[in-house]
Specification:
With about 160 residues, this protein is of the alpha+beta class. The chain folds into two domains: about 25 residues, no CATH class; about 130 residues, Roll (Mannose-Binding Protein A, Chain A), CATH 3.10.100.10. It contains four helices and eight strands; from the N terminus they run ααββαβαβββββ. Strands 1, 2, 3, 4, 5, 6, 7 and 8 form an eight-stranded mixed sheet that branches. The longest helix has 10 residues. The radius of gyration is 19 Å and the shape is globular.
């Protein structure tokens, strides 16, 4: 089959490499073409000063979700993808204070909270932000903040399966 495909491609004047690679790409059509891949999922950092809910909605409009960080390897990958910028991730304890859930409903099992976080400051912080400005949040430490906050947020990361 490959030889037949190659012969047809060459006879039609098509580049075999370009034709073959496009047939191997199983990326769903709704995933941005510049999304990075990691462990079978697609990720894209979007630079925008959105609130957590706005970022969540933007991901959903693109048939994705705000990113889940379920292990250290993925955490490190996402820090590199965001180039160390502060970004929203898809976890919240809005339903039950202190019970942090990813958007898929699963409990957080891996975390990298900054010292004294999550703190639910003034009883109004329910959304996960990664790499908040300040020394205690360097290296992508986690914090909770208000879903409306956007001043120091650099962007958000969407995830697709």
């Amino acid at each position: 089959m490959k030889n037949t495909f190659a012969a047809i491609a060459l006879a039609c004047g098509l580049s075999l490499a370009a034709t073959w690679s496009s047939t191997q790409d199983k990326r769903p059509v709704y995933v941005p073409s510049d999304a990075a891949t990691h462990n079978g999922k697609y990720y894209k950092f979007f630079k925008a000063k959105y609130s957590w809910r706005e970022a969540e909605k933007k991901c959903e409009e693109m048939k994705g979700v705000l990113v889940s960080i379920k292990n250290k390897e993925t955490h490190q990958f996402l820090l590199a993808l965001s180039k160390g910028k502060c970004f929203w991730a898809g976890a919240s304890d809005a339903r039950t204070e202190g019970v942090w859930l990813w958007r898929d409903g699963s409990k957080i099992t891996y975390s990298d909270w900054a010292k004294d976080e999550p703190d639910d400051w003034k009883g109004k912080e329910d959304c996960l932000v990664i790499g908040w400005p300040g020394k205690r949040y360097e290296n992508g430490k986690w914090a909770d903040t208000n879903y409306k906050y956007r001043k120091q947020i650099d962007g958000y990361i969407c995830e697709w399966k």
